[in-house]
């Protein structure tokens, strides 16, 4: 408090994208989380009223997308975040051939701003900002895609 750096916790602002938009960036050190995709995407120019339920959304006018991966094994995917929080390995384990092509196809978007699907301590699903990750073509193959973190801070439009 004496140094002027204390920021009181305000539960109404915790999940509000306006705070981040006003500041002009999001940073991993700020523990940025959102309650849904729509509010997350507001930081990147999403204007629609309804909710967005897909795993990724291309940011208009850029070569980037916002990605909401589940970083645990589930029905179709076995995605892992390493212990340093700087590498994501995406593996498809389902049987849908359309999804399987995702792993082996060349990508027009290789830059991802990642908000991981995460259950907080209260058991609520939130989307936690992990940074910007780019596809590592050297480490990816027909079985998996490897993403390396390139930044812990993202400037907002």
Describe, in plain words, how this protein is organized in 3D.
It is a single chain. With 157 residues, the chain is an alpha+beta fold. Helices cover 13% and strands 31% of the residues. It has helices at 17-23, 37-42, 97-104; strands at 25-27, 33-34, 56-58, 64-67, 80-81, 87-90, 111-119, 125-135, 145-151, 153-155. The strands form two sheets. Strands 2, 3, 4, 5, 6, 7, 8 and 9 form an eight-stranded mixed sheet that branches. Strands 1-10 form a two-stranded antiparallel sheet. The longest helix has 8 residues, at 97-104. It is globular, with a radius of gyration of 16 Å. The mean pLDDT is 89.
Strand-helix topology:
Layout: H1 17-23, E1 25-27, E2 33-34, H2 37-42, E3 56-58, E4 64-67, E5 80-81, E6 87-90, H3 97-104, E7 111-119, E8 125-135, E9 145-151, E10 153-155
Parallel strand pairs: 4-7
Antiparallel strand pairs: 1-10, 2-8, 3-4, 5-6, 6-9, 7-8, 8-9
């Amino acid at each position: 408090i004496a140094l002027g750096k204390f920021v009181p916790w305000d539960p109404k602002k915790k999940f509000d994208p306006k705070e981040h938009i006003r500041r002009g960036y999001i940073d991993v050190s700020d523990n940025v989380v959102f309650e849904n995709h729509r509010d997350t995407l507001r930081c990147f120019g999403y204007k629609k009223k309804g909710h967005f339920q897909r795993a990724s959304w291309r940011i208009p006018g850029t070569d980037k997308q916002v990605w909401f991966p589940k970083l645990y094994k589930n029905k179709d995917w076995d995605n892992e975040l390493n212990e340093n929080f700087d590498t994501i390995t995406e593996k498809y384990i389902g049987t849908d051939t359309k999804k399987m092509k995702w792993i082996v196809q060349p990508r027009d978007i290789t830059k991802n701003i990642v908000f991981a699907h995460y259950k907080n301590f209260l058991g609520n699903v939130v989307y936690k900002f992990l940074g910007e990750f780019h596809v590592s073509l050297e480490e990816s193959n027909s079985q998996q895609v490897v993403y390396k973190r390139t930044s812990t801070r993202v400037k907002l439009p």
